[in-house]
Amino acid sequence: MSRQIEQALLSLMPTFGSDLPPSLVELAGSLLAQSRHRASTLKTEEEIARLYACANIACDRLKITLDLPPIEPRPPIPPRIYKRLYAHLDNILPSSASTPSRTAAGRTRTPSSRFRDAGGSPASGSRPLPSRRTPTKEQSLAQWRTPSKGETGTPTKSTAKKEAFVAGHSLHPWIQPATRFLCEETDHKKLAPTILAGMEVIVTPGGRRTEDEWALQNVTALFAAIYFFVTMRVKALASGEGIDREGYVPLRKDILALLTRARQEVVIRNLPEENAWEGWTNLKSKDFDDAVAKVNERAWLTGDWYQGIADVVKLTQRSQLEDVQMLDEETMPKMQVKKADTMFQDKYDFLSEAKRTDYMHWKEDMLAKIALLTTTGAAMEVDT
Fold it and tell me: Where is the composition biased (Polar residues) (predicted)?
């Protein structure tokens, strides 16, 4: 799947010469996984371009942040249908995965010159600004009071980031890098978009934090359980093997060890420590077991994000089969094709084993006939 996404991205940016940015590939994969949940039923001609449209949306959302070259879409379906599909997916897919705007990063916007000249009011002067509220008594007197230590009128960089984070409703900041860490350590990189899609469906349905108290209070345990179920689903589809008690305990131990390493080794930039690891807890075996049971009870595994794992496995197996076939074709010796107008047909192969055998039989017959005729001719001369 990752290879198909990269091919789609490169086809959208034919002038892009270097390796694709990992954030662009991850966003395209995440959008693709989310689209299977939010738009699970598409028309046949639209389903063909689902991956291409998600890659196009990812390029458009990150083209300024990553300074991407011009995007040149060449969809595999008619332009009219593709425009409708693109608009539909762009509308339903949350933009929280894209790079935040400058305003959300904490920068304060200044009024335009038109409003500065007018004293901060519209030109008409008849209606107040929509965002302007009547100041309270405390707000009116605040400008005349001397601010105490640590209380300034201008927000600092850290407080601005904290306010921007609290105001947002996106997934916990540590979930995406922790997912990437676990998948890289276990060589399951292609499963990262599926795990993220599962967490988004449960924790941030519809782009907003869930009201499920258990999910919010046990985010780390939920994350571990989702990772467990996704990897087990892939193993069952790929090899047909399930998991028993003897295999469950070592796997649980490995997952808990990976989570401990993730907390120690993963670095989340541009956020304070308390915000970066919001909701993280150190798990024990009982916490993991309770989360696995809770996920089964809530029927969270019936969603399209989980059922779509079968498609991921099929595409991976197909890609591996194509690689093997391509390798076989490269290593296979070249065969000469026999055509009607060439000398490679069997009837012209005079040095073949069959031709040699036929020639030996013909030679023996001819020599025998010659000997017989010679003997008969000599006898006739004697009789005369």
Answer: 137-157
Structure-model confidence comparison of residues 144 and 265, the more confident one: 265
363: phi then psi, degrees, rounded to nearest 5: -65, -45
The residue with greater pLDDT, 117 or 347, is 347
**CA 177 to chain centroid:** 14
Cα separation, 36 vs 196, whole angstroms:
13
Q: What share of residues in the chain are helix, strand, coil (percent, to 5)?
A: 60, 0, 40
> How far, in Å, are 86, 220, 221, 321 from residue 217 at the CA level?
36, 9, 9, 43
What sign does the dihedral 258-259-263-266 (CA atoms) show? positive
**What's the rounded Cα separation, in Å, for the pair 241 and 238?**
8
Identity at 360, one-letter amino acid code: M
The pLDDT tens digits of the residues spanning 313-356 come to: 777 666 555 555 555 455 555 555 444 444 455 666 677 778 88
pLDDT of amino acid 179: 92
Q: Which residues contact 72 (CB under 8 A, 6 or more apart)?
A: 12, 13, 14
Q: How far apart are CA 51 and CA 57, in angstroms?
A: 10
What is the DSSP-derived secondary structure letter of residue 111? P
pTM (2 decimals)? 0.46
> Residues 91, 106, 21, CA angle at the centre, nearest 5°?
55
Give the side-chain half-sphere CA count within 13 A for 109: 9
Dihedral angle over CA of 106, 100, 180, 23, nearest 10: -130
Q: Quick check: 24 and 67 in contact, CB under 8 A?
A: no
Question: What is the band of 122 on the pLDDT scale with cuts at 50, 70, 90?
Answer: very low
Nearest to 172 by CA among 36, 278, 15: 278
Q: How many CB atoms are located within 10 Å of the residue 42 CB?
A: 17
- Cα separations (Å) of 183 from 200, 298, 307? 17, 25, 19
Cβ–Cβ < 8 Å for 294, 212:
no
CA angle 39, 41, 43 (to 5 degrees): 115
pLDDT in tens, 16-70: 766 788 898 899 999 999 998 888 888 888 888 899 999 999 999 998 888 888 8
CB 372 within 8 A of CB 366: no
